[in-house]
Amino acid sequence: MRLPFFLLLGLGFIGCGTSNDDPLPDPDAGFPDSGPSDSSVADLGPTDTGVVETCDLLVHVPTLAVGATHTATLGGNFVDGQILGTPEGWRAAFVNPRTIEIKAPYVAGPAAGPLVISFPCGDRIEQREVPLAARALAFTPLSRWTPGDTGPLAREYFSMWVDPIAPDRLWLYGGFHYVPRQFTTGHDVWSLNLVNETWTAHDEGPQRGLPGAGLARLPDGRAYRYGGLNFNAIPNERDTPFVIHRIETSTAGLRFTEATVQGPSYGDYHPSFFHHPRTNKLYAVCGLNDQVGAHCDVSAYDPAAETFTPVTVTGPAPIGRNGHFWAYDERTDRLIIFAGEGYPGTNNCRNCQQDTWALELSTTPFRWVQLTVEGAPVGRRNGAYVLDPLHHRLFVWGGTPDGRSSAPGLWALDLTPGQEAWHEVPTTGDARVRTSGAAVYDGARKRLLFGFGNNPTPVTDLWALGLE
Asked: Are 169 and 189 in contact (CB under 8 A)?
């Protein structure tokens, strides 16, 4: 339950002149206790009718989700407010004279102290206290289904996305199925109605739509799929063939068109692949292929010219990897990369990385920068990851550090440049941690969706994580 707090500051009469000989009431006396309430109201101040000036300030601060940023609009006739004190772990600042931006820590519960705001009233300075609190994020299950009947089979290394044109619909395509055995290439297409939570099966996609491909979504509803792993699915073809499909959506299903591209003869397994609005190109970054092995090269696909070309990048680059966690952050025009299976290596994760990098796309040429971020989660590969555009952070869930187990906990990387920080996120709900799952942002409902994968047996489910 959201627990709103209302703060009415100084609405009443502040002594700015003479009145009578009676002493003024204690300005911090407040109202008598009237029992439990979901809101907190500060004192109205003295009510001496001889006082000639009034000041008031009204601010609504709900209980915030951990790590969330809230913009509070201040009402009343106050001027020149200032923040005198902020509870430990919390951040607060005026972004304009009538608006305070408040960021909650990754600790659930009431704040250790109040937010203290001061403002002038006549010839004196008034200050009031705003109680703050944060709550854990809650995992809640979506409706269950019968795999292969009323919904899709369990899978890994698949594509899942919410249709930007029809935001009440989630699409699911392909990946590796676990039946009749693990690493069975699937080409099935499903859509999920996010309102009534029912699945619909559609015609299958192309045989050259491979597991482990990168998926880039465009604002107009189109998507492009690049690369993937040919695990005995296409006869007489290399392990990582070069293949790009354009995907168009309709109520009837997905329409795949294989692009005729001037490019290399090989593609990538588990690349970062995203649309860049400023250049209107799609960029492939890092991955694994059967030509050069693991790498962190950068290539650009131009859908208009049907070209796929290498991109010059400055700065020391990350070591080659695949199975990494990533997001393109349009707000800062950066690709963020964390962890993944690095090469060379000899253990079951083949040298799992624990580093965090940014590819800065606002510079010419693009530039790699390693981010110095303390408190990173354990290195891992093949987990679920998703950008939270509401609160500007990258979520990381699951993945394996050793090829045998799944890393516990939900983690968030705050993405404000110069303030990047890793945090373990308090959660409720019994969502089973896993490897090889996936996650998407459901903007219409301000939540994230996580699902599928394995730990150690296949998992067939979807979980919602509310962000507000």
From this structure: no
Pairwise CA distance, residues 151 & 162, whole Å: 17
* Residue range(s) of every CATH 2.120.10.80 domain in the chain: 206-311
Residues 218 and 270: their CA atoms lie apart, in Å, by 19
As a whole number of angstroms, the longest Cα–Cα distance in the chain is: 100
Q: Where in the chain is the domain with CATH 2.60.40?
A: 5-132
Yes or no: say if 353 and 321 are a contact pair by the CB < 8 Å rule: yes
Distance in angstroms (rounded) separating the CA atoms of residues 297 and 28: 62
CA atoms within 13 A on the CB side of 357: 26
Domain covering 5-132 assigned CATH 2.60.40 in the classification: yes
DSSP state for residue 448 in the 8-state scheme: E
The pLDDT tens digits along the chain (468 residues) read 333 333 333 333 223 333 344 443 343 333 334 343 343 333 434 434 344 356 677 777 999 999 999 998 887 666 778 999 999 999 999 998 889 999 999 999 999 999 999 888 778 888 888 999 999 999 999 999 999 999 999 999 999 999 999 999 999 999 999 999 999 999 999 999 999 999 999 999 999 999 999 999 999 999 999 999 999 888 889 999 999 999 999 989 999 999 999 889 999 999 999 999 999 999 999 999 999 999 999 999 999 999 999 999 999 999 999 999 999 999 999 999 999 998 765 455 667 899 999 999 999 999 999 999 989 999 999 999 999 999 999 999 999 999 899 999 999 999 999 999 999 999 999 999 999 999 999 999 999 999 999 998 999 999 999 999
CATH superfamily of 206-311: Kelch-type beta propeller (2.120.10.80)
Q: Which residue has the tokens 């790590």?
A: 67
